[in-house]
Every structure is written in C-alpha cells, then in structure tokens.
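Problem: given the chain below (506 residues), write out its structure.
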Amino acid sequence: MKLDNGTKGSGQVLRRVAVSATAAALSATAVFGGLATAAHADSATLTGIVLGVGADETQRVVSWYSSTGTAQVVQVAPTSKLVKGQFPANAVTYSATVTANTVNGGYNAHATIDSLKQNTAYSYRVGAEGNWSPAYSFTTQDFNGNNLDFLFFGDPQIGSSGNTAKDGEGWADTLNVALAANPKAELLVSGGDQVETANTETQWDAFLAPDKLRQYPWAATIGNHDVGGKAYEQHFWTPNTDRSAPYYNGTPTTRSGGDYWFKYKNVLFIDINSNAYASGSDAAHIGYISDVVKQHGADAKHTVLIYHHAIYSPAAHANDSDNKVRRQDFPTAFSKLGVDLVLQGHDHSYSRSYVIKNGQKANKDEQPGAAEVSKGPGGVVYVTANSASGSKYYDLTAPVEGSDFGPDPLNPKSHWANSVENQEHVRTYVRVQMRGNKLVVENIRSGTCAAPNAAVELGKVKWCGPDNGATTAPAVGSTVDKVVIHTNEGKGGQNGPAAAGSDWLQ
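Solution.
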C-alpha cells in the first residue's frame, strides 16, 4: 500500500526502487530533480537516525539528519543475506524525502520501508553509495497473532534536570533495562516531551543516542516542551498525519504537531496533539478520532489513544486550567467511540484510573488497586506515565474537596478517578500486553535511588523510595502496579462502528 506522506494536498508519494546501491543513489537524485549529484553524497554527515512506526506492521519509517541536501536512500536487506556485513547487490532501496531544516541548519530526511515480512530480521543503512551510515537491524514478529507487547515511556524530557548528560544516561538505562526484560516488545510508544527545549539539538542528540531507537520503532508523541519549534517534526516523520490548523498550536513558522494514526496487528493506535485544545481544537480532535474509528475501528480488537496532557493527572498538573477543559471535552466522546486505553504523560508521576465511562466511575464498587477489571461497553482506562529518564519528578497532590477532581470516597488521599497513584522518585516504564480480549498494563521500575537518576543525584527532590522515602526502593524490574483489563464487550472482537472501506490493507 502507499503511505500517506503526512501532509494533505502535497501529492508527494515515496517510491521504492529495487536496484543496486549505485543505481539507487542515481535514481534518488533523479527523484529530487537534480537537487544534488550522487557524486557529492560522500560529503554528507548523517546523524540522528531513528526508526519510527509505519502505517501498519509491514512498514517502518526511518528519519535522520544530513549536513547536505544530497539525494539519499534507505537500503534494506534481510540480515541473513549480508555477507561479512556487506549488503547484497540486490538490496532494496527506498528513496528519501530530503528537506532543509527550518531551525538549526542542515537537512532532515525520511523514507518508508514497506512490504516487510513477518518473523524476519532486517538490516538497514541510510545515505548513498560512498557515504553510508552504520548498519542497524530490527526484527519483525508474527503479524497475525492476538498477542502484542509494547512499551510506553513518560517524558524523558532530556535537559530538564539541568544536566543533559545525566538525563541521557537515565534515558539510555531505562531503554536498556526495559528491552532486556522485554526483547519481544514490538513498539516503543512515547508520552511526549522528548526534550526540555524544543530546538536544542544537544538535548535531541542525547535523546536519540541509544541504539535501541534504531532497533525498535518509536511511536512519537508531541509534548508541550516539544511543541515550541520545528525540531520535533524534523526528527520524526509519522504516518497518516493530518497537520491541519486545529491539530497545531502556535505560529506556522515555529509550530510542530498534527494528529496521526497507525494500525499494528489487532490494535488501532491514534495519537493526537493535545497542545492544541483551544478555539475548537478539542472538537476537531474528537472529529479526527471519530473518522479514524469509523474507517478502521472494525478491523481492530482494541483502540489505544495516546496524547501528552494527562486529564486525570495525580500530581502538579492535576488542576491546570487546560486539563479542566479536557476533562469536560474528552471522556464522554472516548466512551462513545469505544476507546479501551488512554496513554498520557506530562505529570511525571504514575496513575491508573478506575474504569471511567462518560466521565464518571463506571462501577462505584471497583476497589482501589484492583488487579483485574472488566471494562464493559463505554469503559475506558486512563494511564499516566512517570518519568522514564529520572530528569524530573512531580510529587502527588492532594485532591481539592468540592472541585471537579476531588477525593476518592474509597481512598480520600487519591483523586476520585484514580485507582492507583504513585511517586517514588525512581525511573519507571509501562508495559502493555494484548492477550486476545485482555489488556495487561504494568508499571515497572527501571531504576532505583542510585545513579543514573538525575533528579535524585542533583538534589532536585528531597527523598527517594516508596512511602515518601520511608521504604527502600525495590529492585530494578519490580512491579509498581499491574492490572488485567478484560475488554470483551460482545462485539465480535471489533472496536467501534463498522468500517467504511475496510479493505485498506489490501
């Protein structure tokens, strides 16, 4: 299938060329109408390579920075076909779109790898003949099964501690720990705020430094710290993206954003730019989600929605004015649309909601910290991720009596919507496992109070460990919270309205 290039109306479509490396570079030059000759490709410095999600499990998007605007490609081959690290003559190449950077100079490039086969190890490199990047590899898994594991990461926000290097160390350690424990994870999903300052490339360099981001596809989400400049869009190209005005915020010359979706196996993922919420944007987001669910929801067993601003924040952002607006605008719509799970960041603390239906607790008898819940029609579980890097933590806040987000009658120290609220000032990540009609959500420690943990090391917080530091932090890999969500709603494994044009994968 053809991949939506992410900008409506541009008409540009990436093209795949199965040719030798030399011919590939020449073909890519022709695509750009003589932008530069292949002979000049050896002058390009290639950096910031990141593997991203494509429109479905048969695709990956590779994005990178280049010092020059020369024609470039991604070259791909099954790893088994490489001989002593050399790509075969018939390796497949994919022409890249190369664009001048709006900020920080240089160029950004992206290309889509398609027609991937299941259960196959692939190697790839970017550049052109005479100037290739190092080779990286990724492995596809079973495309047809009902099992899917993916990992969700909250706010690395590299640079927010004031020490970019320490933040980068914590981020790299979390990726290493998470993927050592979950090597079969198929996706890495972002909660937003990759960096502290949108256009600061030293922070982006530290965020993109781990090779795990070239081995597992990153599903990018834009946070409020990413939104103030173009670097986010320069680093990440996302599939099926609508960059219409309601899905942006800020001036056209500085903004990044857009809403996008992709389908991976039996899960429909929808990612929205929650930075845009005023002047009708929330209604526009709901319209976008509605259209995607109408067109593709019937092909999915589960619908997972991702955005940055956690509407049931347990900490510093719990009663932000914009969050109060979203709490009014979003929950009923999400229930009606058959959303199963909402993944959010922004609050640098962990929470897992009760099953919420139409903005209310669905079952008044659901107990705090329940290990199993039944979602039922219209039920949605909301998860807020803690810091994945240790660069910044927010302490839990007390619910405000009489507010729209007051105390839980069953646990007055927590907000009414939340079954679990947690902050230990240790790094964590969230593992989500799809098992047929069940979703298993688990918040897992990727660090302790020891380094790398920048906020603790630099004295940004006064304690570390459970119970406000009264208890020693448990070991790396231990579980903070785990819930099994039963999602069987008698809809035959389909999520939402019947799809129009359900042959989209054919």
